[in-house]
Amino acid sequence: MLGLALTTWQVLVSGPLLTPDESLSRALVRTVPDSVTERLSDLGNVPVAVPVLVLAMAYSVRRSRAWVPALTAGLAMALVPAVIVPLKEWTARPGPLEPWAAGYYPSGHTATSAAAYIGAALLIGPYTRRAWPMAAALVLTAATATGLILRGWHWPLDVLASCFLCAPLLLAVAHTVRRAVRPSA
What we know:
Layout: H1 2-13, H2 18-28, H3 34-42, H4 46-64, H5 68-91, H6 108-128, H7 132-151, H8 156-180
Helix pairs in contact: 1-8, 3-7, 4-5, 4-6, 5-6, 5-8, 6-7, 6-8
């Protein structure tokens, strides 16, 4: 939460972190074809990411007969827009390619992808006993964030703030999963 507070403060007061943030963005925007970055960004759309989480929730409940982890993951996903939208309105940060528009901080697409994909990996991970679900979730979240930055739809700090915001939500999911899934003796 300290990272989220720091980045939000920098955005609100036009602090010194904005200079390297804007320089990095200028150096990266449109260095990859829009057709690629747009597809990567779309991984954070609700109709793409949320069904992955819903399927993982159903799988988790079916395997464990425990509802708490699945409900915690669903609540984490529901909290994303409940927190992101007011922050966007409060900070009113313009976008890299749309200086006349506001509401780009923090990135809703990044937060949606993190909550959905990492939440899903946390739910199904104990049943696969492999690292691939979390690896896939991290790749999908990073691909979303990268697409948003390279396309010019978000500043790097917008994306970073969303990751900071999702950390406590996902820690809560991880905690409930650990409590519900006990290793067999």
